[in-house]
């Protein structure tokens, strides 16, 4: 792996005698990690059933290192949404944003969903998570990951940040901006990141970051918290970006973040004005920790939040008898006044959601299912949002049951349950999807796009 000479010189000036350690770390394999979905299972319970060896990630309570030979994506627990596969350093931003149940939270540059899934899990189904990414292609991956995690109160949007401001002005309690950057902290990944740096440098990203962060501040409530992060070492994108933001927004101040072994702090000498407050920021160097490079800054907006805005409530949906009968069998708290109908699809809208106007929205909330002629087809998403006892009829499959893999491959399976009808299919008690039993044969309702390959 040959690094650009300009980058080498810059890193030597940053690290001094540590540069040789940094250079050596790039030759080591990247560190793999998983993060437990605490909205479905506690860390303690997961450790009892973990299918591979794990080692705790120091900077987050529910993150674990996994060995290079492990294949966490090739296990049914992954398909049950019990964990997310994530590079360990990338777990830090969502871990350090102080999200609480009931908050209104924005993940502004959210795809493919690693940080959004953690933010959503920490909301515990209360409040709202708005996850946005400008790329419609990447947003589709974001949508699937949030659905697999069973996040029921999310809104997935694909817009430029400036288009969100009129709709969400001073609306959010917490905002996360994991900004597009030059990616210097990811050089261990390989040549594409290095080639991109050599071709574009850092200047285009600085311009984008400044625009994004100023829009993000406009959407933050007074008294709210904003976490800015990058995966680069460039001071222009890190300390100097924070310096610029504080100059433009004097109502912001840097907040403290917890320390951890191997962490570095922001460097005042790397700012234009020698701003001492940046020592509250955190730098993660890949030669000091088991992970890639990252930068984090937590900021608070002065003032107290104004009184809440009136939410946009849809007209009460007309629900078919079949849909009503099915939903009555789900053990899920459903506010009928928040159910919206669109072309036969029933969607449970998050509480206190404003009118989204002409925004490009991929999902407004929890898709319950689709009303069809004389039947109701529940969604895969609804299954993932339920608990193991979330439906009156359940077929639980063990890890050793041959039917488990057949189900995940969308094949018909056999079952000796006495009552025909729709069943929630689970693995070790954790939902996977739906099946419809008729005379001992379970018609597979698992989402074809989620099929085990």
UniProtKB/TrEMBL annotation:
UniProtKB keywords: Cytoplasm, Methyltransferase, RNA-binding, S-adenosyl-L-methionine, Transferase
Gene3D superfamilies in the record: 2.30.130.60, Sun protein, domain 3, Vaccinia Virus protein VP39
Binding-site positions, S-adenosyl-L-methionine: 109-115, 133, 178
Residues of the SAM-dependent MTase RsmB/NOP-type domain: 17-302
UniProt keyword Heme, yes or no: no
EC assignment: 2.1.1.-
Active site: 231 (nucleophile)
GO terms of molecular function: methyltransferase activity
Segments traversing the membrane: none
Organism superkingdom: Bacteria
A GO BP annotation: methylation
Family recorded in the similarity comment: Belongs to the class I-like SAM-binding methyltransferase superfamily. RsmB/NOP family.
NCBIfam families in alphabetical order: nop2p
Protein name: RsmB/NOP family class I SAM-dependent RNA methyltransferase
Lineage: Bacteria, Bacillati, Bacillota, Clostridia, Lachnospirales
């Amino acid at each position: 792996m040959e690094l650009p000479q300009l980058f080498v010189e810059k890193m030597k000036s940053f690290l001094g005698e540590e540069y040789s350690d940094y250079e050596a770390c790039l030759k080591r394999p990247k560190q793999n990690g998983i993060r437990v979905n605490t909205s479905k299972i506690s860390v303690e319970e997961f450790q009892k059933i973990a299918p591979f060896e794990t080692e705790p990630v120091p900077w987050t309570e529910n993150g674990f290192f996994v060995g290079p030979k492990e294949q966490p994506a090739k296990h049914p627990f992954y398909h049950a949404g019990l964990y997310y596969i994530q590079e360990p350093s990338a777990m830090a931003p969502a871990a350090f944003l102080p999200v609480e149940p009931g908050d209104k939270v924005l993940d502004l540059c959210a795809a493919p969903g690693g940080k959004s899934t953690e933010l959503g899990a920490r909301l515990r189904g209360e409040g709202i998570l708005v996850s946005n990414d400008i790329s419609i292609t990447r947003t589709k991956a974001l949508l699937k990951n949030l659905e697999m995690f069973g996040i029921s109160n999310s809104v997935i949007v694909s817009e430029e940040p400036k288009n969100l401001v009129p709709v969400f002005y001073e609306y959010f309690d917490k905002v996360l901006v994991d900004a597009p950057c030059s990616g210097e902290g990811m050089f261990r990944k390989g040549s594409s990141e290095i080639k991109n740096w050599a071709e574009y440098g850092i200047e285009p990203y600085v311009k984008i970051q400044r625009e994004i962060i100023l829009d993000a501040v406009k959407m933050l409530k007074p008294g709210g918290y904003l976490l800015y992060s990058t995966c680069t070492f460039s001071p222009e994108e890190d300390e100097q970006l924070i310096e610029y933001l504080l100059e433009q927004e004097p109502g912001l101040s840097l907040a403290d973040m917890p320390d951890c072994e191997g962490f570095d702090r922001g460097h005042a000498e790397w700012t234009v004005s020698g701003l001492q407050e940046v020592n509250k920021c955190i730098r993660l160097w890949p030669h000091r920790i088991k992970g890639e490079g990252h930068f984090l800054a937590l900021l608070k907006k002065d003032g107290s939040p104004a009184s809440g805005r009136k939410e946009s409530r849809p007209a009460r949906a007309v629900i078919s008898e079949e849909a009503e009968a099915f939903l009555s069998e789900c053990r899920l708290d459903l506010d009928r006044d928040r159910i919206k109908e669109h072309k036969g699809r029933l969607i449970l809208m998050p509480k206190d959601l404003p009118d989204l106007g002409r925004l490009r929205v991929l999902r407004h909330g929890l898709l319950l299912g689709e009303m069809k002629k004389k039947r109701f087809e529940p969604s895969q998403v609804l299954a993932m949002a339920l608990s193991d006892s979330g439906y009156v009829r359940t077929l639980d499959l063990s890890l050793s049951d041959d039917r488990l893999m057949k189900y995940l491959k969308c094949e018909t399976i056999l079952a000796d349950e006495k009552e025909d009808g729709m069943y929630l299919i689970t693995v070790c008690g954790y939902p996977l999807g739906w099946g419809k039993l008729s005379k001992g044969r379970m018609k597979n309702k698992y989402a074809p796009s989620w099929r085990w390959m």
